[in-house]
Amino acid sequence: MNQKDLWQTVLAELELQISKPNFVTWLKHSQLMDIKEGTAMVGLPNNFAKEWVENKYHKIILGTLRSLDVNIKQIDYIVSFDSLVKQGRQVKKQIEGLSNAQPSFQEFKVDPETNLNPRYILNSFVVGPSNELAYAAALAVIKDVGRKYNPLFIYGGVGLGKTHLLQAIGNEIKQIYKNKIKVKYVTSEKFLSDVVAGIRNKRMEDIKEKYRLCDVLIIDDIQFIGGKEKTEEEFFHTFNTLYENNKQIVISSDRPPRSIPTLEERLRSRFEGGMIADIGYPGFEMRVAIIKTKLQEQSLTLNDDIVNLIASKIQRNIRELEGTLNRLLFEQSGRNEITIKRAEEIINQNTKIIHKNINPKRVIQMVAEFFELPEKNLIDHCRKKEIVLPRQIAMYLLREELNFSYPSIGEKLGSRDHTTVIHACNKISKNILEDRSLENKINLIKERIYS
Ligand code: ADP
Ligand code: MG
Predict the structure, then answer these.
(1) Measured from the CB, is residue 286 less than 6 Å from ligand 1?
(2) Is 290 touching ligand 1 by the criterion CB < 6 Å?
(3) Angle of helix 229-244 relative to helix 188-200, nearest 10 degrees?
(4) Ligand nearest to the Cα of 254, by number
(5) Tens-digit pLDDT profile for residues 274-311
(6) Cα–Cα distance, 407 to 342 (Å, whole number)
(7) What is the set of domains in the chain, with CATH numbers?
(8) Which of 121, 319, 324 best tests ligand 1's pocket when mutated (most atoms within 8 Å of CB)?
């Protein structure tokens, strides 16, 4: 068997053992680059995939390889450009196979029937390590509506592409299945106001019917229905009716179901029964790719140095990335070419506007809110574990985001010694690199601080 066939056989075996979105995300684009002296070299499209595969799938890959070729003793995982190209091509093909929706900038009218905005399509959605799983799950839902992942629950921070991906699922389904499948997109606020109006006007039956008649119900930002009793109740029944009839439900939220504190238990467990995928923060390369895609869509160009500058300065929010890009393009449309220095000025201006209202009180308040603790707990001297970590995070954020001195941070948080603060900041800086859930928590808090 040659190496190519060998690897095909390995992948075919792995596909049976690993869930579909995981397989598509992590292994489909891998390659067997070479086998030398008992070592197989496996190429993966990026560092993230390499680490992931190495940590999660090494055992089963080695086992499968050895079952086909006993001479193989070990595997070296490497990042290979070929795999990246292969991935790009395949993803593109996959989508082209599904539909021929094209990004076009003539006119984007929201369809009153479905509430979908045709601007949001898969073709303009850049895929990278931070959203691969959510993307693969979306593809699976489009191919296999109502059967594969139900509900599909996508969560992630503000401005990271949840609405784009949800709407794209709706648009693709509409495009592919035409009128055979009825899609409806709503924000949870809209759902809420419908229910309230239904009760007030005694037309609850109409509202019920409106939602229960769709084949695909997409609800954006579900975190807002938590705690609204009547709405949750109504949503629960709608959910069950749709679910029992194999209708597809797609939901987004800014956090996973278990972290929506006001959500009723029965809804939470329904959500957890489906597929949950997160969208994280895009890395530098992906931010560059997003900027380039946006430029391409508008047939515009921008100096590479400036593209890199935007991508390195704006890290947490794709909406902000787009906003800054548009501001620069606007500036460029007046002159001929924008200088790096001028670009830097504009970027700094833009980020300053966003950051001007931040003070230590707000930081402490947002940390307390996030962990659902009274603010005074962060300041007093309790040493319980569930309070120590939030307090350390507050110290870290005061240092990182506001550049406060260690003694003044100690002062703000219950007259603590500056060495305590240094210890806390060092600890969080170190842990954030290794602990993805800590990193996510801190990013979510930052988002609240800046929103
Ligand atoms: P969210 O709903 O998570 O707050 P949005 O879906 O509204 O975020 O995304 C914010 C903006 O960023 C939108 O204009 C969207 O098109 C763009 N965007 C987000 N993710 C991507 C991506 N992966 N590729 C291209 N554009 C993206
Ligand atoms: Mg949104």
Answers:
(1) no
(2) yes
(3) 110
(4) 1
(5) 999 999 989 888 999 999 999 988 888 899 999 999 99
(6) 37
(7) 3-79 (3.30.300.180), 85-101+110-279 (3.40.50.300), 305-355 (no CATH), 360-450 (1.10.1750.10)
(8) 319
